[in-house]
Design brief:
256 residues, alpha/beta, Uracil-DNA Glycosylase, subunit E, 7-stranded mixed β-sheet, two-stranded antiparallel ribbon, 9 helices, 9 strands, 13% strand, globular
Length: 256
């Protein structure tokens, strides 16, 4: 069994077959596993999520007003940005954290994966996605021919652990958003994958229903955004791993 197949099995979506009568797939940049996936993602026009109002196919996104940001990061480079994140006390999440978790990976990556926020292990180690959900994310990356730190950057909507691993509040996300926004500006990714509802809402600026948003290609300041389930959700709901695999293949097909 190949390493790729073992990773797909770890995701709980193997075996996968490709019709022998179908033409051989063309290799894409850095990614190979979707060549075997029997997935035909639905076509969808890009949906802007920058200065213009969102205009998706309803009921994917409902725009909401967010509290004004209070953090200024304009012009900061990577080192200054991470130093600012680690020292940040702009919201109540800083009061009970062990440390802030800026992100990890290739600072010039084509792929940016955005989650919700650090958990207990991430708070202790200072790196996102290092627990069981992180292991599943690594398997998801490997199924695409990617690896943590290699053409991939991993970040979160908020940089400090919410107490009890609760969902971040809207004002906490709004306060922390300039950090993520600056990271995106510095990375200039070719595609962003939103892992879970809070990440999707942060990136797209509206209320999101994952089931409705899947299969739609959004756009945030010129960068394609694909929405899928958070790995922690998939651990609790393994029956949806196949849907996540479809989303990854859709993301791969959307890389331009």
């Amino acid at each position: 069994m190949s390493r790729r197949d073992s990773m797909l099995r770890e995701m709980g979506i193997a075996p996968l077959w490709r019709d022998r009568a179908s033409p051989p797939p063309q290799a894409g940049p850095d990614i190979r596993a979707c060549e075997q996936a029997p997935v035909e993602p639905p076509a969808a026009a890009p949906v802007r999520a920058d200065s213009a109002p969102l205009r998706p196919v309803a009921p994917v996104v409902t725009t909401v007003a967010a509290p004004p940001a209070t953090v200024s990061v304009e012009g900061l480079g990577w080192d200054e940005l991470e130093e600012r994140i680690r020292a940040c006390q702009a919201c109540r999440l800083s009061e009970r954290r062990t440390q802030a978790v800026p992100g990890v990976g290739d600072r010039e990556a084509d792929w940016l994966f955005v989650g919700e926020g650090p958990g207990a292990e991430e708070d202790a180690r200072g790196e996102p996605f290092v627990g069981q959900a992180g292991k599943l994310l690594d398997a998801m990356l490997a199924s695409l021919g990617l690896a943590r730190g290699q053409n991939v950057y991993i970040a979160n909507a908020v940089k400090c652990r919410p107490p009890g691993n609760r969902t971040p509040e809207a004002d906490e996300i709004a306060t922390c958003h300039p950090y993520l926004d600056r990271q995106i500006e510095l990375i200039r990714p070719r595609i962003i994958v939103a892992l879970g509802r809070p990440a999707a809402q942060t990136l797209l600026g509206g209320e999101i229903k994952i089931a409705a948003a899947r299969g739609h290609l959004f756009e945030r300041k010129g960068v394609p955004v694909v929405v899928t389930y958070h790995p922690a959700y998939l651990l609790r709901n393994p029956q949806d791993k196949a849907k996540a695999w479809e989303d990854l293949c859709f993301a791969r097909a959307s890389v331009v």
